[in-house]
Amino acid sequence: GYPRVLVMGDSFTQMAYVSNGEEWYSYLEREFPDVAFFVFGGSGYGTLQEYMVMDDFFEGISPQAVIWQFCSNDYSNNYYELDLHNYPFNNHHVRPYLVDTEVVYRLPLPYAALRDYSFSADQVLHLYDRYRRNNAIENLKKYHQQRREERGKLSFAGKEALALLERQSVDVTSRLAGMIRKRVGDIPVYFFNACGKFTDNDRAVCEAGEFVCIDFIGEYVKSLKTSGVQVMVEKDGHWNREGNKYVGRKLANYFSDRGGIIPKSTEYEPNLNGISDQ
């Protein structure tokens, strides 16, 4: 049996864009062959969904450390009103949201009530959803430019309302980070944003969960792109094989410089709950 590390994340961890053994975390597996890695990544998942998966399997795995891959869109994924605002470039399925202390399931799409009432309307709207999303993906730069222009045209009240939604999404995400910390106990949780610059909001969430902030990945990927390295899937926002390789090696070096992922002081109890790591 080996010490165990749990890796949690969304599509950047599911990483359907490369073959097995080419994902960013596979470089950690090679760097630390005496550690067993348990990996979960769910495309489109928000922090609450990831937490719920971890909650189900935490005792069975009993990790000595957690690596939590975050993405900038997790803020909207975690807050219904902002998730709906980001249509069509959002989740198109019912998902859980933390409302106060309750988990509430809602569909973050326009005409949600009509979709629930009429199967036919839902099927027609589903085709429209797919068209809107595919069009946004096909013209990603244009989509983001249009979003920036739309935001610039908002009235003062509109900008204030949107800013309030964003602050509330950070608050919810920070509370989820606290839930993660409570669930895992005293083991280290390493937190990084795979989707862009590590922001003040990211740091607030990281500190709310008493996580170890890995704050350089977004800027590192940006520097690679600036130097001409093709690290992204064409017409997509995810890392390609090269992107996974560079990020994986960067993280492997980071943890090697720290002396490993699992602190030396952490007591290791092999094969808890009948789990075999062989």
Q: Care to describe what's here?
A:
This protein has 278 residues and is α/β, with parallel strands linked by helices. Helix content is 51%, strand content 13%. It is built from twelve helices and seven strands. The strands form two sheets. The chain has a five-stranded parallel beta sheet. Strands 4-5 form a two-stranded antiparallel ribbon. A hairpin with a 2-residue loop joins strand 4 and strand 5 (102-106). Helix 2 runs parallel beside helix 12 (241-257). The longest helix has 29 residues, at 156-184. The N and C termini lie close together (6 Å).
Summarize the structure.
This protein is an alpha/beta fold and 278 residues long.
E-strand count:
7
Largest sheet: 5 strands, parallel
How many alpha or pi helices? 12
Q: Could you estimate the helical fraction of the residues in percent?
A: 40-55%
Taken from the alpha-carbon principal axes, the silhouette is globular
Walk across the major sheet and give the strand order.
2-1-3-6-7
Mean pLDDT across the residues is 91
List low-pLDDT spans: 267-278
